[in-house]
Amino acid sequence: MRKPTAPWATVSSEWIERLAQSGRAVDSIERTRREAFLLSHLILAAGVLIAAPLWIVVNGAPTLGESAIFALAQLPLLSVAALLRLDDLKIAQSIAAFGWLALAAACLSVGAHAGAAAPFGGLALIEAILACDLTLVSMVASASLAVLAVAALTAATGGGFFETLLAAPLVLYVVLLARGAAQVETVRARAEARNARDLRLVSEASGDLVIGFDEGGAVSSVVGDAARAYGLDARELMGRGFFQRVHVADRPAFLKLVSDAISSGETVRATLRLRIGHARNELGEFIEPVFHFFEARSSLVEAADDARAACVVCILCDVTAQRHAAERSRRRGARARWPPPARRVSSPMSAMSCARRSTPSSASPKCWRASSSRRSIR
After folding, report:
1. Distance between CA atoms of residues 372 and 349, nearest Å
2. What is the pLDDT at residue 25?
3. pTM of the shown model
4. Alpha-carbon distance 178 to 138, whole Å?
5. pLDDT value of residue 290
6. Using one digit for the tens of pLDDT, what is the confidence trace for 129-167?
7. What is the C-alpha separation between 213 and 261, in angstroms, rounded?
8. How far, in Å, CA of 361 to CA of 367, rounded?
9. Which range is most confident: 149-153, 173-177, 275-279, 305-309?
10. Using an 8 Å Cβ cutoff, are 152 and 142 in contact?
């Protein structure tokens, strides 16, 4: 049973989930990492923005160095913008890691806040470790060692020289830990990539669309690139994009398709019309949507015990050609069953001649003799 949550928490969670959506197919682990990154860095950016006026109230106008520190503190917000714009979590994590290093260097240069350089360097290492990228960890570790060296030289006259040098082995220890974590992550990523490649090859060979839906009918994942054959992009289908492309008359059937698959746990079938583009009408006056018929087969996927929502996998097979062929066959059969058109009479004289030819036994002998005499005279 789910625990009751506050309305604001539910709204914020749904908002973060929408922001974390990607234009490419991502697994649940990658999606969770995106959500955690967005949540932590948005809260940090909000905290920095709130702390700025409080700093001015308590300490007065900031110096030039403190203004530079405040400007560099906005790099977490820049990393969020990079994630939303570039759709690459590693690039966003790299920006955040080097942002902490820039803050450490700024604190050393200011002098009055040199004690904050070591914590900022540690945060940079944490950001690099969470990225599970050994190259990034090595670069951040080298930069952190350089910051520690500068801090040691700065503290040579003021004390704390040996304490600063003792931090260097800790940095190397963090690098070794990150190296082991990166190797484990690499093995797992390769295994998942191999499985995803096999599934993508199967979906592309069959030509069917393989889409994952949540319990509300929103698209959570798109497997393979079969959608590109119809001019569709995975980013356009994510979330409510697929639902907006379903024909208005078929949307209740689509929602029933997802709900029946979740409630019954069995495979459910339905035929849906999906908008794949636009085309001008025969006269070229206006653009009308182009719909294809898809036979949808949905089934419930067994999720983990801690899964927040059910997941439905739907396989959509294009049956537009079969539907059109069946419609043409039905029309030909209907025309074959129609009776032949009756012979139309063009004039009264034609009707009289037809009546004479059709009923010769009913005519009088005199009329027959008169007609035969006319033929002989002619």
Report:
1. 20
2. 63
3. 0.50
4. 9
5. 86
6. 888 777 888 888 888 878 777 776 766 555 455 555 556
7. 11
8. 12
9. 275-279
10. no
The single-letter code of the amino acid at 275 is R
Residues 6+ apart with CB under 8 A from 323: 293
CA distance linking residue 372 with residue 355, whole number of Å: 18
**Burial of residue 57, with CB atoms counted within 10 A of its CB: 0-12 exposed, 13-18 middle, 19 or more buried:** exposed
Examine the pLDDT at 352 and tell me if it is beyond 80.
no
Q: 265: pLDDT confidence band, cut at 50, 70 and 90? A: confident
Q: Which of 138, 125, 120, 145 is nearest to 179 (CA)?
A: 138
- pLDDT band for 256, please (50, 70, 90 cuts): very high
SS3 annotation, the chain? CCCCCCHHHHHHHHHHHHHCCCCCCCCHHHHHHHHHHHHHHHHHHHHHHHHHHHHHHHHCCCCHHHHHHHHHCCHHHHHHHHHHHHCCHHHHHHHHHHHHHHHHHHHHHHCCCHHHHHHHHHHHHHHHHHHCCHHHHHHHHHHHHHHHHHHHHHHHHHCCHHHHHCHHHHHHHHHHHHHHHHHHHHHHHHHHHHHHHHHHHHHHHHCCEEEEEECCCCEEEEECCHHHHHCCCHHHHCECHHHHHECHHHHHHHHHHHHHHHHHCCCEEEEEEEEEEEEECCCCCCEEEEEEEEEEEEEEECCCCCCCCCEEEEEEEECHHHHHHHHHHHHHHHHHHCCCCCCCCCCHHHHHHHHHHHCCCCCCHHHHHHHHHHHHHC
Cβ atoms of 309 and 263 within 8 Å: the answer is no
Size of the chain, expressed as the number of residues it contains: 378
From CA 299, how far away is CA 43, in angstroms rounded? 38
Higher pLDDT, 285 or 343: 285
Going from the C-alpha of 117 to that of each of 49, 104, 111, 225, the distances in angstroms are 21, 4, 10, 47
Sheet with 287-301, side-by-side order of all strands = 219-223, 209-214, 311-318, 287-301, 268-280
The neighbour count for residue 150, using CB atoms within 10 Å, is 17
Q: What's the CA gap between 305 and 252, in Å, rounded?
A: 30
Strand partners, 239: 219
> 238 with 21: CB under 8 angstroms?
yes
Instruction: Let me know: does 200 contact 222? Beta carbons within 8 Å.
Output: no
